[in-house]
């Protein structure tokens, strides 16, 4: 991560990951989905930076397992779906008339279970892709490349993202403090008891952050006049409205022909102009912006190619991409998609190495606070002196 | 550089102005130290220097504040960001980005400094503050001293002409504090920066200051002058000044080094006394412990789950009525030890018993009557919006008689009104409230984590009295602290932790005098080979020294 241009543009990582996510969304074939997770994990293991958020991939995987579990429970409860291989039959629970579309109980078929599993797996895979992007390039880094006009919105998002983990440590800290006073700290009462102080603490923190940002020059106005500012804001609003109406017209088949597409184009053009105009007046500069070079093109392509292949394959060879499990048999493997996916492994070599260990290990004297894995009850402030 | 002209600041809803009729002139290149009791308006004064008061906090300001030729009435804080750099008490709360390098660049980005210049200044600042090896590190993983240096660096990159710091060393161990102060020294000397800092621990910074601004509080008017001038009769004085005043030294020594040069006669006098009454109580203190007296018994305890546990093989016993100070640098495991004793962390190996019970199993009144813990931030255990509600709840939580917490509080801090919000109290008052709440359960063991942070000398003296009373009443008191003077004053025993192990454990005089880092001022001044073998004899505070030798 050190030195000029030795790290990959955050946008390239996100494009690559989104490409994989699109690929996953096009299929329920377990072979393809498993392959995508494996590729994401491999690249993350090879190229993640040695930062706290670099470890977030694991959490996303766990979340994925949870989603598969939930999806399976629903499948088992609301059986109802077709399929020939009946595994067992639940007693049917009679539901009131206004719920006539839903059946609770009934025969559970192997096909339904497989469908549920694969559907859950698909969601979990998409999550894994997002998790990979998160690990490889934190959203905060992505912000560095956002157009200047959208900077303020971006800051709000990043502050919100960093507050979430802070809230969790706050809850833990205040729950242990509640126990110290001999009050219940577990279960619903424990959570309710700390809710108010946690929100209060978050408010106090955001005020002090705002004060810090203000005294460090955040929000200084450039040379733009108020009129220019209002013009670009108005243009952006118009562009967005035109875009929304255009998309509506495009999707609604009853709308007059030739109504949707032009409006979308006009809307897009107006919004881009507004963003460009607003950006020109900004006084901000950027420290060491990520550069977009050959490596970035290659990494993005490694994600986009499988996505395109999978989208085409989903139309042409739908059986391999979405197995019907009727009869119960191993699904066909969409060879072309698998070959394209192998390309997505390439970033593990194309992207520059991040030196995962060399600076994390250095200077153990007082440089590293005792942040021991699995021992995370201390807040950052307490970790100072844990 | 800074000119305040008849400045009066009143916060909305306040009956009294926070600052009234202050006129000051701080010249360029000077290092000014702002001192005063808590609540005397130090933070308000610092806030006014970059316009945060009143632009951000609200309230009204009459008179004028002019910084580097700009009137803060016309310039909000963001427009002063290129001339004033502000470092606040808790650096973590003011970080905007998440890695060291980006944090250093943030202010420059807002100011629109060209990328090439930014790059150069970041590299310079990394070197200036010795942060080069941390440049890619996430801010969350830094130690307290490193965070403080990053926070200073983050405002320095904008090349401000004035640096304003609010208690930059209060959360730091003595060594880390020295690193930060050394960095500040270099900035004043090499870059000609004007520095204004508020600090409670004067013993660390007094010798570096060019001038002192004293805010006496209580409506008395502000004074500014040379350190020696102000210290002659300042109500806020570190141990070295109190020693110099008690001994009538002229000129008044501002540093341990100055004091040592004048202490020849005094040292000889102490040595004489020592040689006359050698077989003193030193032996009597270390009588073997009676098992029934033990309130804390820790055997071979290891806490944390990795190859590098936070605490490793800790053996510790504490008796009734004993005050034990736990010292060691930031991150040595002091807080974790206290938290383990309170049952927050379970040991991976080994055992803990506190008054005969396993603390991790305790809940409800069983806990509040055996262990009372005041965490680093007392606000953690204060959850109500009024002081009286807090006390009432404390009586419900413990088997104590009604009104006990309120009675204790009126003893500790009589000035607190029952209808106040705990968040509006000063640091010292919050600590008093938390202590009252905790002590209402009459716990056998009292645990205090860094209790002197943000306390002025008067409050510290009050805390020391309370701790002694608690010990006399049979409570065992354990406190984790960086404050060597407090340790010297109240502790019977000192434990030094390093990298999760106990490296020293013994009577306060023995441990503290053996180390240059932990020795209190008086000991440093009197240090001599003849006294080295009689550690139990050496007085620890200027007051006890005066009792021994009498004032001239």
Major sheet size, sense and barrel closure of chain B: 6 strands, mixed
Using the coordinates above, name the CATH class of the largest domain in chain B.
Alpha Beta
Order of helices and strands of chain A: HHHEEHHHHHHHHHHHH
Quaternary = heterodimer
Name the strands of the widest sheet of chain A in spatial order. Answer: 1-2
Low-pLDDT parts of chain A are: 356-386
Describe the structure.
The complex is a heterodimer of chains A (386) and B (552). Chain A folds into 3 domains: 1-142 and 291-358, no CATH class; 146-219, no CATH class; 226-281. Chain A has 15 helices and 2 strands. With 386 residues, chain A is mainly α. The radius of gyration of chain A is 26 Å and the shape is globular. Chain B is α/β, with parallel strands linked by helices and 552 residues long. In chain B, 38% of the residues lie in helices and 20% in strands. In chain B, the strands form 4 sheets. In chain B, strands 6-7-8-3-9-10 form a 6-stranded mixed beta sheet, sandwiched between helices. In chain B, strands 15-16-17-13-18-19 form a 6-stranded mixed beta sheet, sandwiched between helices. In chain B, strands 2-1-4-5 form a 4-stranded antiparallel beta sheet, covered by helices on one side. In chain B, a hairpin with a 2-residue loop joins strand 18 (493-498) and strand 19. In chain B, helix 10 (239-247) packs parallel to helix 24. Chain B is globular, with a radius of gyration of 24 Å. In chain B, 55% of the residues are buried. Chains A and B meet through helix 6, helix 7 and helix 15 of A and helix 3, helix 4, helix 5, helix 6 and helix 14 of B.
Task: Map the helices and strands.
The complex is a heterodimer of chains A (386) and B (552).
Chain A: H1 10-25, H2 30-47, H3 57-77, E1 86-89, E2 107-109, H4 110-136, H5 139-143, H6 151-180, H7 187-215, H8 226-251, H9 260-281, H10 294-316, H11 318-321, H12 335-343, H13 347-350, H14 358-361, H15 380-383
Antiparallel strand pairs in A: 1-2
Chain B: E1 2-10, E2 19-26, E3 31-35, H1 42-48, H2 52-55, E4 60-67, E5 70-71, H3 77-80, E6 84-87, H4 100-111, H5 115-128, H6 144-156, E7 162-166, H7 174-191, E8 194-198, H8 202-205, E9 211-214, E10 223-225, H9 227-231, H10 239-247, H11 256-262, H12 264-276, H13 282-285, E11 294-303, E12 311-319, E13 323-327, H14 334-341, E14 349-354, H15 364-368, E15 371-374, H16 387-397, H17 404-412, H18 427-439, E16 445-449, H19 457-472, E17 476-480, H20 484-490, E18 493-498, E19 501-507, H21 508-513, H22 521-526, H23 529-532, H24 542-549
Parallel strand pairs in B: 3-8, 3-9, 6-7, 7-8, 13-17, 13-18, 15-16, 16-17
Antiparallel strand pairs in B: 1-2, 1-4, 4-5, 9-10, 11-12, 11-14, 18-19
Helix pairs in contact in B: 4-5, 4-6, 6-7, 10-24, 16-17, 16-18, 17-18
